Amino acid sequence: MDSELILASAFRFEKERGQLDSFFESRLEDSGLSSKTVEEVAELLTSYIKSHITSETELLSSALFALGKSYDSSHSKLYTEVMKNSQKTNPVACYQAAIALENTGVLVFPEGADVSKPTDFLRDINTYLGEHAL
After folding, report:
1. N or C: the chain end with fewer CB closer than 10 Å?
2. pTM of the predicted model, to two decimals?
3. How many CB atoms lie within 10 A of CB 1?
């Protein structure tokens, strides 16, 4: 999985929600994802995330961003696992998992979050995890 495929995955979810323009469409066509269902795209991302859950790479946070665009609560457990396991190895992925969880309607950051302040957002994430015994 590369950054172009991950970006196209996010566009595929946007297309499903009716948020498509010519730029999105051209990226989808180039990636080959336009013919895949959102479930197939989600499975590609989920598999990647699970196999790289403690990775330090930027692709992990990008994959979480893309999967978060699905707004699908069935991925909540995966987001929580990333939040628990990537705090030290990849704080940005941890942040992106929390944002993806918020996209499903769960409040992790009661006062918002700033990705440039890892101490603050990790504190909020740990508060959320502790309050929900996760």
Report:
1. C
2. 0.90
3. 17
